[in-house]
Specification:
With 227 residues, the chain is mainly α. Helix content is 74%, strand content 0%. The longest helix is centred in the N-terminal third of the chain and has 28 residues.
């Protein structure tokens, strides 16, 4: 249970500070600021709870780790429960904070940093762009995670490599989908916002998961596993 609680806390940190920066300060800090918020929150979560659970804070990462043969099915499901609940609580806390602004906060209009695609969302990229970006970005992200945490990798630096990778992914992709690469990060805000965000969330549950599985297979088959 300690591992599952750690994943709950870590995912809460990531979603609160990442989505929170987008909602509360996005117009001040821009894409770079939001990207840094997600990347540095990932670093904080990894070093904070990593010694307990490994610091996945992402169901797609846990899927990749399980596919690579590095965790049990039972633990993966436990991690998922902690991650999704942590993201949902973070979205709710963000909503409570955001609604306190003078004049009120219209969640239906301004959202909670939810992901999406198509006309009216960010750059208006279509579903093909969203699918390709989310798959490739998650594949790369999980490859970095599995590669930097394998036994022969330098110790102590994985958290930085992973956080920097997430930062760069956000710089590249915020204008495309808002960047998921993390089903929990997407589902938490979408459940509260509802409507169009909830209708589109399937993509951010399915495609990052497939990217995680693909990355895991590259290590399970020893294609990227160090000798």
């Amino acid at each position: 249970m300690k591992k599952y609680l750690a994943e709950f806390v870590g995912t809460f940190i990531l979603v609160l500070f990442g989505c929170g920066t987008a909602v509360i300060a996005g117009d001040k800090v821009g894409i770079l600021g939001i990207a840094f918020a997600f990347g540095l929150a990932q670093v904080a979560a990894i070093y904070g709870i990593g010694p307990i659970s490994g610091g996945h804070v992402n169901p797609a990462v846990s899927f990749g780790v399980w596919t690579a043969g590095r965790m049990s099915l039972k633990d993966m499901i436990g991690y998922w429960i902690g991650q999704f609940l942590g993201a949902l609580l973070a979205a709710w806390v963000l909503w409570v904070i955001a609604r306190g602004v003078t004049g009120g906060y219209d969640m239906a209009t301004s959202g909670l940093g939810q992901d999406g695609w198509g006309p009216g969302y960010q750059g208006g990229y279509d579903i093909t762009s969203a699918i390709v970006f989310e798959f490739v970005a998650t594949l790369i992200f999980v490859i970095v995670i599995l590669g930097s945490t394998q036994k022969s990798a330098p110790t102590g630096f994985a958290g930085l490599a992973i956080g920097i990778t997430l930062l760069v992914i956000h710089i590249f992709g915020i204008h495309i989908t808002g960047v998921s690469v993390n089903p929990a990060r997407s589902l938490g805000p979408a459940l509260l916002v509802g409507g169009h965000a909830l209708a589109q969330v399937w993509l951010f549950l399915v495609i990052p998961s497939l990217g995680g599985i693909a990355a895991g297979m590259l290590f399970r088959t020893k294609a990227l596993e160090a000798a």
